[in-house]
Amino acid sequence: DTGVSQDPRHKITKRGQNVTFRCDPISEHNRLYWYRQTLGQGPEFLTYFQNEAQLEKSRLLSDRFSAERPKGSFSTLEIQRTEQGDSAMYLCASSAGTLDTDTQYFGPGTRLTVL
Amino acid sequence: TQLLEQSPQFLSIQEGENLTVYCNSSSVFSSLQWYRQEPGEGPVLLVTVVTGGEVKKLKRLTFQFGDARKDSSLHITAAQPGDTGLYLCAGAWNDYKLSFGAGTTVTVRA
What we know:
The complex is a heterodimer. Chain A is mainly β. Chain A contains no helices and 11 strands. Chain B is mainly β. Chain B is 0% helix and 54% strand. Chain B has no helices and 11 strands.
């Protein structure tokens, strides 16, 4: 099964540290998305890539957040100078981008805890 | 801000009972997806509905998309403990972005 994979699954860090998460989408999926989910809420859109181009960033994505997808395959999400409010599940999804109804498939997520 | 409202927020039923989860919005969506999520895991896609009035069945699960494509429901017949989880609806109103509801936590007691 070559679904969406994310690494690490869990990350505990101290406030002020930088963290980086990786997402490997389903192969040949040209769209990749990052979402954030806090307890008791559904996922919220953060950003979206079409191949290597980052086409939209949510207002939720402050200047401390940066995402890249350098070769149009895997993606990284970096958070600089983490704050306790950054504690959440970070979800990655990918889609084929070839149909009008473009179903997104999610990875298992990275749970971030900022102490 | 969640554009989709899900109800109820929590649902606890006995094994064998039926349940319905609702997803409502004031926006028209091009498609709507239902996901199920277990603690510590990512959402797993159950179904995508596209056409207003569409009904899809997946074993004991029945999904309906409203005629105006603003609302949807998920009905589970003869629920089993394995159906326990967080059910999320997500609407797509443009080419790519999903807007999720807050979810309905379903607990099926054996």
